[in-house]
Design goal:
The chain is α/β, with parallel strands linked by helices. The chain folds into three domains: 3-237, Glutamine Phosphoribosylpyrophosphate, subunit 1, domain 1, CATH 3.60.20.10; 246-432, Rossmann fold; 433-589, Rossmann fold (3-Layer(aba) Sandwich), CATH 3.40.50. The relative contact order is 0.10. It binds fructose -6-phosphate. Fructose -6-phosphate is lined by residues 291-294, 338-340, 343, 346, 390-391, 470, 474, 586.
């Protein structure tokens, strides 16, 4: 989703640095970009904006000590050069980049239009520079930015530069913003990875804070503007390499990293698992929340805790949690699953739960992320950076943690580990067995020509079916639906016609006979059955073997589907790393 990078200092050529910073934010997903650099002699800004991807090399010719940049993921207004950030005021002396949604922008814009302001875009963002222009008539730069930010409704982060000043001002109450503190130079970014190549000293801006970066960093609380002592933290890890290496795409690299990720969790996380299971044991009323792929992991968690630990846990999409939170109290525990740690739906839910005094546990992949910092109990997945938009290794890592927790809760932590070790082995076999990958490619070719795909599973294979369907639709743009096998006859079976591909998860568990019956019902209506199972069946037209590795089988099923999704995208000549309309870090509601 939108990315921000800003720089002030004499040491570097700001536009060049901003360009590199934006490159490192590319993986978040964007559809246009822009840079505004202050040109001293002009007392204004040189702006470069465009739709599509950043060029390979920085084309900003002018030198500058002070610039802000943005990668945009369209919300208000289409993907056009005019809508790309930074946005300027009428005098062209104020430049603004923004993440989030200004919920009251229409009324603000109406007033500004009445006052004669000229708008050049359809964005909500553009009200900010024009409002600051108004406030600057009666007060200074910092108080103008503060007063304008206080007018905005919704979850927002803005970064503002004003040509006559050498300061950059940032305010936030939603999207992440991190300040980097260098020697006589300062950075601002929505992602730690963009700052770490320059400095290890950072300030994580909290909601309702304003930062002023110039000769030093000053932090103020909002709405009043009381000065706070900056909390500078030293990050002691290096930014990990972000190259796909020998793989053609990050998605493929991340799929192949999964055996290692699972093994790492099996072997090195006993203490963290023990700590979190103690918290779970003590809680009264537990909710697992997440979005998209992370929600599918939550749903698997409900089944795993029920089956293994005989424990009832609730789950719901994080975006629906606010409508279900009335019963929360001080003894409730919310376990948030989030790869990025920045998903706004999750953050909003956690804020509300905190207000009610409930405890928060977070299982995330990003150290220092908002959700990580918000939580009382922190669990890092250790899966390494996930760059492809479609989540793969973070999903299997979350499932691994849930399996370990479920067994730990009944004092059988060792059994959980054994299952994961077997799972890592079976995943490795699937990924490296030429016969299996060849079969997956063959099926990818068959499916790539279809308009609809159905995936069915029961019990723990139901969340797997949802996740497999999400992976295929995200990267191949083929309509794919994941269904609980028993629900077919209650409606969706009407959609089955001749040769409709239907993937059937049929593991060696209590669901086997019933799911095979469901597959037979589909076959009787002309569907093509692709069985993913521990043994072949006469109802399968195609078969991929996934060995019985107990609860680990629900991980391996999904790995097969991830690879299938990847190859469908490749056959359709699509970029699996950056699917259309999607973003890696979803920081708007
Ligand atoms: C799908 C995908 C998304 C994310 C969702 C939550 O492949 O990646 O559905 O799972 O946006 O993201 P996180 O886990 O970062 O909270």
């Amino acid at each position: 989703m939108c990315g921000i990078f800003a720089y002030t200092g004499e040491k570097n050529n700001a536009p060049e640095l901003i360009f590199e910073g934006l490159k490192s934010l590319e993986y978040r997903g964007y559809d246009s970009w822009g840079i505004a650099a202050r040109i001293k002699e002009k007392k204004g800004f040189e702006v470069e904006r465009n739709t599509g991807k950043l060029p390979l090399k920085n084309s900003f010719a002018k030198k500058s000590d002070f610039a802000i940049g943005h990668t945009r993921w369209a919300t208000h207004g289409g993907v056009t050069v005019e809508n790309a950030h930074p946005h300027l005021d009428c005098t062209k002396k104020i430049a603004v980049v923004h993440n989030g949604i200004i919920e009251n922008y229409e009324s603000l814009k109406k007033d500004l239009l009445k006052k004669g302001h000229k708008f050049t875009s359809d964005t909500d963002t553009e009200v900010v520079p024009h409002l600051i222009e108004e406030y600057l008539r009666k007060e200074g730069f910092a108080s103008s930015v503060r007063d304008v930010f206080n007018l905005l409704k919704g979850f927002n982060a803005i970064v503002v530069s004003y040509a006559p000043s050498s300061e950059i001002i940032a305010c936030k109450n939603g999207s992440p913003l991190i300040a980097g503190v260098g020697k006589e130079e300062f950075f601002l970014a929505s992602d730690l990875s963009a700052i770490l190549p320059h400095t290890k000293k950072v300030i994580f801006l909290n909601d309702n804070q304003m930062a002023i970066l110039g000769k030093n960093v000053r932090i103020f609380s909002l709405p009043k503007g009381r000065q706070l002592k900056p909390k500078i933290e030293k990050i002691d890890f290096d930014p990990e390499k972000s190259s796909a290496g020998k793989y053609k795409h990050f998605m493929l690299k991340e799929i192949y990293e999964q055996p290692k990720v699972i093994l790492n969790l099996a072997k090195n996380y006993s203490t963290q698992i023990g700590r979190l299971s103690k918290v779970i044991k003590e809680a009264k009323g537990i909710f697992l929340i997440g979005a998209g792929t992370a929600y599918h992991a939550c749903l698997s968690g409900v089944y795993l805790f029920s089956r293994i630990s005989k424990k009832h846990i609730n789950t719901v999409f994080a975006s629906e949690f606010n409508y279900l939170e009335d019963f929360l109290n001080k003894k409730s525990l919310i376990i948030a699953l989030s790869q990025s740690g920045e998903t706004v739906d999750v953050i909003e839910s956690l804020d509300r739960a905190k207000e009610k005094g409930s405890k928060i546990a977070a299982v995330t992949n990003v150290l220092g992320s908002t959700i990580y910092r918000l939580s009382d109990y922190k669990f890092l997945l250790g899966a390494g950076p996930e760059k492809a938009v479609a989540s793969t290794k973070a999903y299997t890592a979350k499932l691994s943690v849930l399996i370990l927790l479920s067994y730990s809760l009944i004092g059988k932590g060792k059994r959980g580990k054994e299952i994961l070790i077997e799972t890592a082995k079976e995943t490795e076999r699937i990924l490296n067995d030429k016969k299996t990958t060849g079969k997956i490619k063959q099926l990818a070719s068959l499916i790539s020509k279809k308009e609809h795909v159905f995936i069915i599973g029961r019990g723990l294979s139901y969340p797997s079916a949802l996740e497999a369907a999400l992976k295929i639709k995200e990267v191949s743009y083929i309509h794919t639906e994941g269904l609980a096998g028993g629900e077919l006859k209650h409606g969706p079976i009407a959609l089955i016609s001749k040769d409709t591909p239907c993937i059937v998860f049929a593991p060696n568990d209590e669901t086997y006979n019933s799911i095979i019956s469901n597959a037979t019902e589909i076959k009787a209506r002309g569907g093509t059955i692709i069985g993913i199972s521990f043994k072949n069946s006469s109802v399968f037209d195609h078969f991929i073997e996934v060995k019985d590795v107990n609860e680990g089988v629900y991980i391996v099923q999904v790995v097969v589907s991830q690879l299938l999704a990847y190859y469908i995208a490749i056959i359709k000549k699509l970029d699996p790393d950056k699917p259309r309309n999607l973003a890696k870090s979803v920081t708007v509601k």
